[in-house]
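At this stage, I put together one protein's amino acid sequence and its backbone structure tokens, which the following lines show:
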Amino acid sequence: MAFRFEVLCTDPTGARLGRLETPHGIIETPAFMPVGTQGTVKALTQESLESIGAQIILANTYHLLLRPGPELIREIGGLHKFMAWPHPIITDSGGYQVFSLADLRKVTDEGVTFRSHIDGSSHFLSPEKALDVQIALGSDIIMVLDECVASSSDATRAADAAARTLAWAKRSRNYFSEHGDSQRQMLFGIVQGGADRDLRRKCADDLVALDFPGYAIGGLAVGEPHEVTCGVTAAASSRLPAERPRYLMGVGRPEQIPDYVTRGIDMMDCVLPTRSARHGCLFTWQGRLLIKNTRYARDSRPIDENCECPACRRYSRAYLRHLFMSREFLAATLTTLHNLYFYLDMMAKIRKSIRFGNLLGFCSELQARLATSVSD
């Protein structure tokens, strides 16, 4: 089979050490997936991503639909060839981006009509269209179209969105069985339901009945307290089959990652490490470091003396601060390299801790360190 997921061992906390085989390579889980919205992880080359151990990247269906368009990418040979990335790729359905447009979209049971944020042109995205785009892109893991709602939505609004998400999931499953190729692409259903744990459980149960190869939990980490995110994640994850991969979408801060892992999550993505890097916020094993601060103007040390990333092996804090103050492009490249390396290294250490049965101790120490800011 082109796809195979195996849970190698389970920690008493609920964390899972796994292995997901895809047509373009193996993903060791729990895994963090760098976000390459428009077919590129901002500020980095594909060679740089390979050098720091990125296993899989996430691309954005909404943005690629608008520019350059799925047919152009299909004509060139698919997203892997187009962006010169021979490793696994996951694409979202575009649902979150469309629903975040607010005044620029209209939702019906058939799908979503929206206006491009680029030129105002009108587009229609249905469950079938979202799959057509992703089939053309040729990504390894693809997502059904879902309806996202704010975690603060009332019970009626959350229930309506969950019901529509389930109806769209059924249409997606049927459409993919007729037009997709399960040897080339793996289709994930998405659990929705706002902050209502019972609604999340019901949505998960209904999706499991549709027998998707993998499952995602969406619509979280969008402003609600971290404790709510964890509670809803645990409620949904507990109803998903143990033998299928679980993906928590759009999370999170480094000190939060262990909490999701211990709730049985296998895959995560977030723009935080790359976006923070471009603004000079760096993650280290001693806490957050704001490189633009004056105190680093003459600091000859690397970002993190315990880090082996290319930036830390060669460049000083003083030089990185100079690059930011001079508005040099290299600033974003080096800091993005560091932050993504930090996330990927953290995940490797988490996987090792699960394997050797000391995850709880590792995570407690990790969270204590990461919740602070570097002050020296």
Notes: Residues 277-370 form one domain. The chain has two domains: 31-270, 277-370. Residues 329-356 form the longest helix (28 residues).
